Fold this sequence. Notes:
InterPro entries: IolE/XylAMocC-like, Xyl_isomerase-like_sf, Xyl_isomerase-like_TIM-brl
Order of helices and strands: EHEHEHEHEHEHHEEHHEHEH
Distance between the termini: 13 Å
Helix content: 25-40%
Number of domains: 1
Keywords: Isomerase
Number of strands: 10
Domain Xylose isomerase-like TIM barrel: 38-301
CATH architecture: Alpha-Beta Barrel
Structural class: alpha/beta
Strand content: 15-25%
CATH topology: TIM Barrel
CATH superfamily: Divalent-metal-dependent TIM barrel enzymes
Low-confidence stretches: 1-10
GO molecular function: isomerase activity
Protein name: Sugar phosphate isomerase/epimerase
Amino acid sequence: MASSSASAPAGIRIGSAPDSWGVWFPDDPRQVPWRRFLDEVSTAGYEWIELGPYGYLPTDPARLADETRSRGLSVSAGTVFTGLHHGPEVWDRTWAHVADIAALTRAMGAAHLVVIPSFWRDDRTGEVLEDRALTAGQWRHLTSQTERLGREVLDRYGLRIVVHPHADTHIDTEENVSRFLDATDPDLVSLCLDTGHYAYCGGDSVELIETYGERIGYLHLKQVDPEILADVVANEVPFGPAVARGVMCEPPGGVPALEPVLAAARRLDVDLFAIVEQDMYPCPPDRPFPIARRTREFLRSCGTPRRAP
């Protein structure tokens, strides 16, 4: 696997993810095959990847290690989905989902587990599944159970959880992100700041980094198209259809500007992964690779390093 010593002087390590290849599910005929993703992400100039939806990439650690190593790739994180605001009664089901993913993530040498809260409306059909605002009791469940998850994942697998604010979830806006961070233990819970989702929900990524710098444990680099976003917000379009409309766009054509975000991240003077995610589902199979290559070149122009030899 690639060594972390290849990171940028400011500690920023650039990668990409299956999401940037239109991959949202373990198996879907509209998605590119996993071997093609690995081939193309490596050729595009990235050396770090996330696992994506569990089961998309091989789940046997030895096989996945062979497949990634042969392409000069290493794994930065796995991803889990949770509905912890429902309280202790969902813990067993949540842990059953988390455990296999955490085990594979650790086996691949990664140190992070990205935690995405459950959606309050279906991301494809738009069906409202529950109220978009949590009660005080649900907030207490969310924060206490997330701390429990952070503790268990750290104790059992040596991984740090990084919670991902996401459109159409209860951790979305500046207000809700701040409330969540203020109510959770920084030793157990860090943030995966997704610049696109935070802008989608009206937040300022640079301000968040400057205000809660010690809580930023991981970055997803993404931009939104402001014109499409305005229509999405005005018409209350669910996240899935919004993505299909192109609300997440190729840098540097959207917001937020990524140069100041990366500059703010460098000022933290800590090692950070910055994983490119341009939500594109569904998309033609030949579309992701040219975008990924251009995005990598753009990020080099922002001062991120070239791939290690």
